[in-house]
Amino acid sequence: MDSSQCEVHGTDHLKVVGMKIISKCGGLPLAIKVMGGLLSTKPRSEGDWEAVFKHHAWSVAGLPKELDNAIYLSYEDLSPQLKQCFLYCSLFPKGTTFWQREVVPMWISEGFIHPPDRSSSSYDDWLEEIADGYYQELITRNLIEPESALTRYSCTMHDVVRSFAEFMSKEESLVVQDQQDDGGSKISHLRHLRYLHLEDTNITRLPGDIHRMKFLQHIVVDGCPQLDHLPSCITQLLHLRTLSMYGFHDNVLIPKGFGQLKNLRSLSGFRVHLDKNGGTGWCSFEEIGPLSQLRKLSLHGLENVPASSLAGMAMVSSKEHLDYLQLHWSSSGFMGLRDETNSSSSRE
Q1: Which domains does the chain carry?
Q2: Could you read off the pLDDT of 41-52 as tens digits, one per residue?
Q3: Where are the beta strands (DSSP E) in 105-194?
């Protein structure tokens, strides 16, 4: 028998066991969808699919009636790390859209992401890539759902799936919402904090001794227009992996020494300034050059940078891990940049 006949034969047998699994779902669309996601991760062998059909989760007792056994089976099939990541998604308020760029740093901060070989010298290098893979696997399994068919970067969680996740994590998690901030006078007492998210708040400053939060890995201060500078000691947070500051005003002060943050993987909303006369306290554009571990980079105010200096100053070619680059400039700046680029090209 040739390989094509084996493939057809195997498919026929999978149809039989597949229909038996569907019958276990009781005609519930969500259960069928979750089972489809689970089966898509399995080898196309009758034995593997029969194992799903005969799994003990179909008859488990003790779950509330509204929680479907198919979801429990899918959950049981996850690795321990992926179980933690899945349950963590239920901490977002009901109906919330959560973004991959936000969830991945949270998972890393919680210590959920573990490379296969912790003894490797590159143990810390691929946490984001592994977490991105977990995010995509949860989508494949239909445990989280893309907000639209056009993108997989933002997702929601079906109410029934969310109820299941809340039930499974009820003894381990606490969600507190709508807490008022005090302008940053307390965030430095949280010495073991790893993730700081202050998006869309009226904070005017970050703690002047934020460097004492030496375990801090991720800072998000998007949409904080009253925050006009970052404390100079932020350059001492050598474990920092993410700094996101979209929505700052044009003159936000980023301190000198920014290039010391060589562990940064994601830098968003960095506003470019040229250090023309020295000693001004501004972080110059050249200081992002040594940030060789960057995966994501978003630059603003590029109308302030000559086109001929752009790539060289930022050392873009040396950032071998960079997979996302976003550039912003004003319309007038764009015209000048275009003219200079065209002029440089004609000279070459």
Answers
A1: 8-168 (no CATH), 187-347 (3.80.10.10)
A2: 999 888 999 999
A3: 145-148, 151-156
